């Protein structure tokens, strides 16, 4: 397989849309499909898996079986996953304080900085509006 032409980081607000019909699900699926085809590489933090599974657990149309199937599919996407380390979490802490967001929202942005790319989010009301004006590498889905 050839080297992907683009590298992006996605946060859990995008990944949840891979399993749930919501506004902009079509854009999230397009991004996922580009990863599967090899035209982009999607990077995520380890916490994304817990965040996505937790969000799906509380979706009214999910039960234990549907959740288990989603977990299998998520893991089979072979997303590029980075290990948590002091440097990444410290930078996430700095971003969280500076932008007034949670560590969960700041971590993919810190990862995007480390990978010299941008974080794609669907969280326009909080993460995007607080971090974009401060110059952080974040784009709306």
In short:
The chain is of the alpha/beta class. It contains 7 helices and 5 strands; from the N terminus they run βααβααβααβαβ.
Please give a handful of descriptors for the protein shown.
alpha/beta, globular, Rossmann fold, five-stranded parallel β-sheet, single chain, 141 residues, 7 helices
Give an overview of the whole structure.
- By secondary structure, this protein is an alpha/beta fold.
- It has one domain: 5'-nuclease (Rossmann fold, 3-Layer(aba) Sandwich).
- It has 7 helices and 5 strands.
- Strand 4, helix 7 and strand 5 form a beta-alpha-beta unit.
- Helix 3 runs antiparallel to helix 4 and helix 5 packs across helix 6.
- The chain is globular and about 40 Å long.
How large is the radius of gyration?
15 Å
Structural class: alpha/beta
Strand order of the largest sheet: 3-2-1-4-5
Mass-distribution shape: globular
Number of helices: 7
- Approximately what portion of the residues adopt beta-strand conformation? 5-15%
Sequence of secondary-structure elements? EHHEHHEHHEHE
Averaged pLDDT: 95
The CATH topology corresponds to Rossmann fold
Return residue spans where pLDDT drops below 50 for at least 5 consecutive residues.
none
CATH architecture label name: 3-Layer(aba) Sandwich
